[in-house]
Specification:
By secondary structure, the chain is an alpha+beta fold. It has twelve helices and 18 strands. The chain folds into four domains: 56 residues, Nuclear Transport Factor 2, Chain: A; 169 residues, D-amino Acid Aminotransferase, Chain A, domain 1 (2-Layer Sandwich); 67 residues, Methane Monooxygenase Hydroxylase, Chain G, domain 1, CATH 1.20.58.2250; 48 residues, Alpha-Beta Plaits (2-Layer Sandwich), CATH 3.30.70. The protein is 40% helix and 24% strand. Strand 10, helix 6 and strand 11 form a beta-alpha-beta unit. It is globular.
């Protein structure tokens, strides 16, 4: 690997690159292709940026800012028009072709064996044959999502929806319209486009969209400048906040404090901005309260009866080796999981049931039941 050339591509000095390799950049030799990944954002380079041994760079996808006061954010960050897409509830991957092989990168810059197999199956070969320079930025969603399992989308397994296009060795993105045009031309799924509005008329339209998505249990929206002149902004449905809290309080000791606090704060700002009636606010408070109390009580009662607190998920793979590789991938990510014996299915592949062990919540709950102080 020519370090000077890599430094030039990254827009930093060779000395700076060598310094970053000591404390920010980490080597990942498994699975192939080998790469170096940025563990943290630094020097204008996003976390999750991957430098492959062949010299290709796939930049990390920028973190999308979140609006708490919708009307003020629209006025402050957008000029003439706003394109509104659905924010889908799954996990973020970037898919690229490296030396002719499809590779799916997690947000942290790891090659995920399971995501790579899914992407290889769902993305037509012609996409990278004709456009080897492209990076498809998208969301893996569905009930067989091993990280965020959701059955609200039209699949019984897992699907890949692109929400942006980029290129290798380039920090930018091609914008909302080019992304949707490309998806349509190549038979790819894209995150739903929910409308494009003048900024002076957008607020009421967007509130209506958010309310409709919330009733269907969906996550929220991403607002984008149609000319790609401003960074995207996201906004979440109340029902999604509560769904997140329900999961987090079920496994309360395995989530950071900010996860709980940020979602409660979102609810307060939304309720205030929407000028809810007393009845609407009480309904919101009840929804939040149930999402906190009920799963937490369920966890404590299960532990009191001697049960282990676990998460059950499943995946489908074409190759048993993919399941073995994914098990190792979870382990290196710090996740403890038990993989059942793969079961052959009618599609010529295998169904793999996975039990994710939630160790911190298990241990803490048991200790508290036995009288340990909080």
């Amino acid at each position: 690997m020519n370090l000077q050339r890599i430094a030039d591509k990254l827009g930093i000095t060779l000395k700076k690159l060598e310094s970053l390799q000591e404390n920010i950049i980490r080597r990942s030799s498994w699975p192939e292709p080998r790469l170096q990944r940025f563990e943290k954002a630094t020097s204008g380079i996003e976390a999750g940026t991957a430098i492959f041994d062949n010299g290709d760079i796939v930049y990390g996808y920028p973190k999308i800012r979140r609006a708490l006061m919708l009307k003020a954010a629209i006025k402050r960050y957008f000029s003439d028009r706003i394109a509104v897409e659905e924010k889908m509830n799954g996990y973020n991957v970037r898919v690229a072709s490296i030396d002719g092989e499809v590779v799916a990168l997690t947000r942290g810059g790891f090659v995920c064996p399971y995501s790579t197999e899914v992407a290889s199956r769902l993305i037509p070969e012609v996409v990278f044959n004709d456009h080897p320079e492209l990076v498809l930025c998208g969301e893996m969603v569905g009930p067989e999502n091993p990280y965020v399992s959701k059955d609200i989308y039209p699949t019984d397994s897992i699907d890949f929806y692109i929400f942006d296009l980029s290129r290798k060795n380039w920090k930018g993105t091609l914008g909302v319209h080019k992304t949707h045009e490309f998806a349509e031309e190549h038979g790819l799924r894209a995150t739903p486009m929910l409308g494009e509005f003048r900024t002076d008329r957008a607020y009421d339209e967007i509130v209506g969209i958010v309310e409709r998505l919330g009733k269907k249990g969906h996550e929220g929206i991403v607002m984008k400048d149609p000319e790609n002149k401003a960074m995207p902004v996201k906004y979440t449905c109340s029902e999604s906040n509560c769904s997140d809290l329900e999961v987090a309080f079920r496994y309360y000791n395995d989530y950071a404090l900010d996860f709980f606090v940020s979602r409660a704060v979102r609810e307060g700002f939304q309720s205030a901005e929407w000028n809810e009636s007393d009845e609407e606010r009480r309904a919101r408070a009840l929804r939040i309260g149930e999402s906190i109390l009920l799963p937490l009580v369920d966890t404590v009662k299960k532990k009191m009866s001697g049960e282990q607190i676990v998460q059950q998920v499943q995946i489908r793979v074409k190759n048993i080796q993919t399941a073995r590789d994914f098990e190792y991938h979870l382990r290196r990510s710090g996740m403890k999981a038990i993989f059942d014996q793969p079961e052959p299915n009618d599609e010529g592949g295998y169904l793999v049931r996975i039990t994710k062990l939630v160790m911190s919540t298990n241990d803490k709950t048991q200790a508290l039941i036995e009288g340990e102080m909080w």
